[in-house]
Design brief:
By secondary structure, this protein is α/β, with parallel strands linked by helices. It is globular. The protein starts with a strand and ends with a helix. The model has no long low-confidence stretch (mean pLDDT about 95).
């Protein structure tokens, strides 16, 4: 396949390296300011998916440079707050390539389908963790489950999506198809909303949060509020009640990732904007649309935004 990876952060670097090392033609589109930092188009990964290195077929900054490449698949791995900008640029490329969203949080699918149409957009739940050692070099630090891909509204043929899943698995990124990908993604929204902002604010890993009674009280309230909003909005979850999910969260989800620090922690340390608006902030927004109060999620959202501004002057 001819594959375009948009964004070469920690996640994009893993996808680009693994897919190129597996024999695909892989290109990247990144921001102009990062172009000189990835020398000779060489990318590499280490960690749980093995040691791999590859030279990409091209790195570009302008969608006009990609017009003649006959792209089959576009993997979007930018931060959630850049989704609308990036998808608008993708629309400038005269192609019917399928677009796979790999970001965290709520709202990416809704934005992408509004711009491109649901017949081009595939959603994923990515639950392996990676960190960027330097531009073009990422380490896979945690792996909790397969990448899950699918089209929530069955607007893309199942066999096409299964073929992509098979190619990803062949490349060393375990991936499976599910028609319930949207519901599965909400599992990750629950998980990330409970862990990421607290890990960033308190500067600790997931295991420390789960061992502390005070943070457990906060995380439980975050989860309970998300369930209330999801029920009210008619969003299907895999769990019939919050307590069942909370039990699963502490018993099955946190232990394999106990030593992991959230990406939000690294974003704040590096002076970058976080994805809080696609996680707890999105819950607050959805709640306000239907007149529900989510005080803990709102407090967490405001604390993260305050930390961004107070430490780095971000606006």
């Amino acid at each position: 396949m001819n594959i375009l990876v948009v964004g070469l952060g920690a996640l994009g670097t893993v996808f680009a390296t693994a897919l190129k090392a597996s024999g695909h033609n892989v290109y990247a589109m990144i921001k102009e300011k990062y172009l000189d930092k990835i020398k000779n188009c060489t990318v590499k990964i280490s960690g749980l998916f093995g040691q791999k290195q590859a030279k990409l077929d091209g790195i570009f900054t302008d969608p006009k440079q990609i017009v003649s490449l006959n792209i089959d698949l576009i993997v979007v791995s930018v931060k959630s707050y850049d989704t609308e900008t990036v998808v608008s640029k993708i629309k400038e490329i005269p192609s019917e390539a399928l677009v796979l969203l790999t970001q965290n949080g709520y709202g990416n699918y809704e934005v992408a389908t509004k711009i491109l149409g649901k017949q081009r957009v595939i959603l994923s739940r990515v639950i392996f963790g990676s960190k960027l050692i330097e531009p073009g070099f990422a380490e896979v630090t945690v792996f909790a489950d397969d990448v899950v891909i699918g089209q929530p509204e069955e607007a893309v043929a199942e066999d096409k999506i299964k073929k992509i899943a098979a190619e990803f698995t062949k490349a060393g990124i375990p991936t499976r198809y599910s028609k319930d990908v949207y519901t599965i993604l909400w599992d990750k929204i629950l998980y990330n909303s409970a862990l990421n902002p607290l890990g960033a604010l308190l500067e600790c890993n997931y295991g420390s949060l789960a061992q502390n009674e005070e943070t457990k009280i906060i995380m439980n309230k975050i989860i309970e509020e998300i369930f209330t909003v999801a029920y009210a909005k008619g969003i299907k979850l895999n769990w019939s009640n919050p307590q069942d999910y909370i039990n699963h969260f502490y018993e099955k989800l946190v232990p394999p990732t106990a030593k992991h620090f959230p990406s939000m922690y690294y974003d704040i340390r590096q002076g970058k904007r976080t994805e809080i608006d696609a996680l707890n902030g999105a819950i607050v927004k959805l709640a306000k649309e239907i007149g529900i109060q989510t005080p803990v999620n709102e407090l967490i959202t405001n604390l993260i935004k305050a930390k961004e501004k107070l430490i780095y002057g971000n606006s």
